[in-house]
Automatic annotation (TrEMBL):
The chain crosses the membrane at residues 6-22, 117-138, 144-166, 193-219. It holds the Pfam family Zn_peptidase_2. It comes from Psychrobacillus soli. It comes from the Bacteria. This is Zinc metallopeptidase. Keywords: Membrane, Transmembrane, Transmembrane helix. PANTHER family: MEMBRANE PROTEASE YUGP-RELATED.
Length: 226
C-alpha cells in the first residue's frame, strides 16, 4: 500500500514540479534584458539566415510558451512575449526552436526517427488504455498485453524525444554564443532556461516509463495466476 502511495505521488508530483520549475525560471529570465537587444524574432531570423534557412518563416503565436517549430510548414512560431521582447529567456527559447529547424535541415537521425514515430505514437497512445482497462477489469491477460505493447510505442516516442530536445538546446547555446546574441553571465542564465524546459520532457518520460513498468508487473502477476 505504501509503495503505491509513493508511486502515485511520484507520477503526480514530478510533472507538476517540472512545470513549476520552467514557469519560475522563464518568469525570472524573461525580465532580464539581453545585452544584444535582439527580440526573439530577431534572434530566430539571425540564426536561421546564418545557417542558410532563408525559407523558414518566423511568426508570432498565441498562448503562453507556445513556441515550436513546424517541419511541415517550415515555420518557427514564438509566443508573443518571446517574439517581441529582448530577453535572455526569449533568446534562449527562440534559438532552441531554430535548433530544431537546423536539425531538420541536416536530417538529424533522432528527429527523423521521431517524425516517423508520430503517427504510430498518436494511434497507440489513444488506443492503448482501452485494451489496458479491459484487460485489468476483465482479467484478460492477452488484452492487457496488447495494451502494454501499444503503450510501449508511445514510451519509445517520448524516449526518442529526449535527445532531440537536448541536441536542440546544445545547438541553441552554440549559435547564440557564436553570433554574440548572449555574452558572459547570460550564457549561464540561458542554460538555466533551457535546462528547466528540458526537465518537462524528462519528467514526462519518467512518468511514462514508470507507468509502463507498473502495467508489466500487473501483467506478470496476472499471467502467473493463469
Amino acid at each position: 500500500m505504501v509503495s503505491y502511495i509513493i508511486y502515485f505521488a511520484i507520477i503526480l508530483l514530478l510533472p507538476i514540479y517540472a512545470q513549476m520549475k520552467v514557469k519560475r525560471t522563464y518568469k525570472k529570465y524573461s525580465k532580464v534584458r539581453s545585452t544584444s537587444g535582439m527580440t526573439g524574432a530577431q534572434v530566430a531570423r539571425t540564426i536561421l539566415d546564418a545557417n542558410g534557412l532563408y525559407e523558414v518563416k518566423v511568426v508570432e503565436s498565441s498562448g503562453f510558451l507556445s513556441d515550436h517549430y513546424n517541419p511541415m510548414t517550415k515555420i518557427v512560431a514564438l509566443s508573443s512575449h518571446n517574439y517581441h521582447e529582448a530577453s535572455v529567456a526569449g533568446s534562449a527559447i527562440a534559438a532552441h526552436e531554430v535548433g530544431h529547424a537546423i536539425q531538420h535541415k541536416e536530417a538529424y537521425s533522432f528527429l527523423t526517427l521521431r517524425h516517423k514515430l508520430v503517427p504510430i505514437a498518436n494511434i497507440s497512445s489513444n488506443a492503448s488504455w482501452i485494451f489496458v482497462m479491459i484487460g485489468i477489469f476483465a482479467s484478460m491477460s492477452g488484452m492487457l498485453l496488447l495494451g502494454i505493447l501499444l503503450l510501449a510505442a508511445g514510451v519509445v516516442f517520448q524516449i526518442v524525444t529526449l535527445p532531440v530536445e537536448f541536441n536542440a538546446s546544445n545547438r541553441a547555446m552554440d549559435q547564440m554564443v557564436s553570433y554574440g546574441i548572449i555574452r558572459n553571465e547570460e550564457e549561464r542564465h540561458a542554460k538555466k532556461v533551457l535546462n528547466a524546459a528540458a526537465l518537462t520532457y524528462v519528467a514526462a518520460t519518467a512518468v511514462a516509463v514508470l507507468e509502463l513498468l507498473r502495467l508489466v508487473l500487473i501483467y506478470t502477476g496476472m499471467s502467473r495466476d493463469d
